[in-house]
Amino acid sequence: MEKIEYNDLITDIKDIKRTDWQAYLVILRKGIDTFFNSLLSFGINDTTIDTVKMLKEYYESFITSNHLYNFIIKQGMIMDSEEVYKFLNKIIDINNNTLSYFVDALLEVKVGTLNFNSIQTKRPYRSFKLLNEINTYMLEAIGLTLTFSDIINYFNYPNDFWPYIEPNITILDSHNPDTSSFYLVNIKCDEHNRLSKFRVNVPAIVNLHTAKVNIHEFRHAYDLYQYLGKEISIPDQVFEDNARQEEQAFVNEYVKRKVISKIIK
Question: What pTM, to 2 d.p., does this model score?
Answer without folding.
Answer: 0.91
